Amino acid sequence: MFLSSIFRNKVRIVITVAFDQETLLIPCPDGSKAVEWLIGEAESKAELLFGGKVKIKHLILDGLILHPKDLIADIDTSGNAISAVVQAFEQTSMVKIYKNTCARLDILVDPMVLELLEEAMKSGDASLAALGFETKTLKPVALALNLGILNHLDLSQNMLSDASLSLFSITPTPALLPHLSRLDLFSNRITAKGLMTFLEGLDVPALQELDMSYNPLGVGALELLADCVMRFARLDKLSMEYCNVSIDVEEAAVGTGANLSLNLANNKSISPTGVGDLIKLLVHIPRIEVLDLSRLQRSAGWGEIGSLSRLLHLKELNLQNSDIGPEGAKAVGILLKRSLYLAKLDLAYCELNFEACVSIADGLMLNKTLTSLNLRGNPLISKHGSNVIADALHANPGSLLKDINLAACGIDDLNGVVPTVDLSHNGPVGSVENLNTIAVGMKYLKC
Fold first, then answer.
1. Domain C-terminal end among 186, 216, 246
2. In a domain, 84, yes or no
3. Which is nearest to 42 in space by CA: 93, 97, 83, 78?
4. 86 and 39 within one domain
5. How many domains does the chain have?
6. In terms of residue numbers, what domain contains 74?
7. Which residues contact 296 (CB under 8 A, 6 or more apart)?
8. Residue 375's closest CA among 398, 348, 338?
9. How many CA atoms lie within 13 A of 49 on its CB side?
10. Which end of the chain, N or C, is more open, meaning fewer C-beta atoms within 10 Å of its C-beta?
């Protein structure tokens, strides 16, 4: 807070509370008023302006503390400004802050926002999705939400830009939203630069879920992934689906914390060489437990999949609709051999053929962790590929595989060992009696 020169019986005060700055004009009827009176007037106007109580500790001029009994008329403010040390700022209700800020910024109060803020005060959940926020209209809301009582904040499907997101990133206290565990920013206009601002400025130590999907994050987003995981030790679910992600680094070291579910599906902007770089980056995030890499393009980089065995907590891997090719299939076989915890693998619609089945079967022969395998929608597998997989399972007495989906895999007959199985959309597969006769040694069969 700064006081500048006294003019025409008015004192001009430039005041900054939290991260918002305004100018006040305080009328002085005569020069007999003391500094303590000026402080009181400033505190009263600040309360109306910011929706909270401001406590000023003292005023300083040229490095010297002004005594509260000093007369305003005796203070020479023609040179340096008088500064005020703010001791405390106690916010009131979110609704009051929102109304006061709207009045100050000449913005119409939105009745729907008011209703949602009132509900947020009661429940701790602020559902502000699809309200058409832009930077100007979001500012009053951002100031109100700084109360720090929220558990869940949903700002998805608005028009938030990097500038909008930065409103939450200048922290007046060490923990701006100390109780926030879930933040939804789905479907906005945020770039990697905006995400950088968010990570550097927003202090949310309790954050567990962050959804940034369907934002044009672009170049630099995955490099910030490491910072995100490092900063939020409790984060266990991070979604960056369809974010035009691209990669320009290979490795990043990441700390430890809660196990993480990471969704990077639909980022088709990742170049063919970038897929390999992506996997090299991911192996440095040991917290990953569930990983979604579905709907990415074909790449020689899929040959790096085997290195995901270094993720000691990885239990679920989704590669659906990603054309992993022969090299990727070989790498999947390596992953199955080495993985210590992988329980669920989704390879649906990956254009797998007989050669790919041979590679996968090679891994299944030694795997002792997988319980579910989805091969749906790979018509080139045919009965020959399914037989190879069946033979591998039959040869592995330690296999835990209970569920396998072979729907739409071009199988018109079954000649092997299969667990609980989905064989829909394959044409005739013979009678149940014939299937039971063929499946000698089968562990789990429910047809």
1. 216
2. yes
3. 83
4. yes
5. 2
6. 2-91
7. 265, 266, 267, 268, 270, 275, 322
8. 348
9. 20
10. C
- How far is it, in rounded angstroms, from Cα 75 to Cα 82? 9
Give the pLDDT score at 49. Answer: 62
**Domain co-membership, 99 together with 173:** yes
Name the residue among 222, 298, 292, 233 with its Cα closest to residue 261. 292
The first and second tokens of residue 277, run together, are: 């770089």
DSSP H/E element including 334: helix 325-338
Question: Is the separation of the CB atoms in 55 and 43 below 8 Å?
Answer: yes
Residue located via tokens 């270094």: 310
**86 and 105 part of one domain:** no
Q: What type of residue is 120?
A: A
SS3 376: coil
Tell me, yes or no, whether 110 lies in a domain.
Answer: yes
- Domain shared by 128 and 37, yes or no: no
Both tokens assigned to 132: 């058409």
* Ordered DSSP codes for 106-169: T----HHHHHHHHHHHHHSEEE-TTS---HHHHHHHHHHHTT---SEEE-TTS---HHHHHTTS
Give the torsion sign (CA, 414, 418, 420, 426): negative
Q: What is the pLDDT at residue 30?
A: 67
pLDDT, residue 85, reads 78
Three-class secondary structure of residue 332 per DSSP: helix
The pLDDT of residue 354? 94
Bridge-based pairing state of the strands 52-61 and 344-346: unpaired
Could you give the CA distance from residue 3 to residue 22 in angstroms, rounded to a whole number? 12
Of 65, 91, 117, which residue constitutes the final position of a domain? Answer: 91
Walk across the sheet containing 2-7 and list its strands. Answer: 20-27, 10-17, 2-7, 82-91, 52-61, 64-65
Averaged in consecutive runs of 10 residues, what is the pLDDT profile of the chain (447 residues)?
A: 48 64 69 83 73 78 84 71 75 83 89 93 92 85 79 92 77 60 93 81 85 90 78 90 73 63 87 79 89 85 91 95 92 95 96 95 96 95 91 93 91 52 48 32 32
d(C-alpha 155, C-alpha 169), whole Å:
15
Determine the pLDDT at residue 204.
82
What integer pLDDT is reported at residue 443 of this predicted model?
A: 37
Number of H helices, E strands in the chain: 12, 18
- CA atoms 194, 198, 199, 201: torsion sign: positive
The verdict on 100 and 143 lying in the same domain is yes
Q: How far apart are CA 106 and CA 81, in angstroms?
A: 29
Q: What is the C-alpha separation between 183 and 207, in angstroms, rounded?
A: 8
